[in-house]
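During the reporting period the student researcher (J.K.) took over the structure-prediction task from the postdoctoral fellow and processed the backlog of single-chain submissions. One of the processed entries is reproduced below for the supervisory committee.
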Amino acid sequence: MPASDQRVDPNEKYQFVARVLVFLTRGDEVLLIQWKPKKGAWANLYNGLGGRVEHGETALQAAQREVHEECGVKVDNLWLCAILVIDVGNSELGKLVFIFRGETEANPISSTEGRVAWVQRGQVNTETAVEDLPILLPRLLAIKRGDAPLWGFYEYDKTGKLIIRFED
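J.K. obtained the following structure tokens:
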């Protein structure tokens, strides 16, 4: 099938920007990054490692690249554990986030993106993490390799409050 038959039209009603998010574990700890002040609303808050899927990459390749760029660790044991659709209130564009998990015993190093740290699973809270992480992370950490991925949908109400739904 030629590329022209893929029916990608920039005038279509709704499209996605692809992102990846990665959570590495080591025993009862999860590796998080505390974003630098340049991250706007996420400044100084913890989240998983990740970023954009670049042209020519699969989501898995993007996840591996982002982990290496943000903490210096090369991982080859990542597995898909969740897919989120995020409606940002734009009728033409949303985000599609592929979330991966993996294990490592490596010693990560901080980067220009932020400071990485091993955090006990139960110590992630709304005061130190991005808004959805205390809700999302326990669900992700309960998923085992080989389980079906978690499906999630995020949207914002008229007041800007985040609404999170999961399909179980």
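The committee noted the following: DSSP finds two helices and nine strands in the chain.
J.K. will present the remaining backlog at the next meeting.
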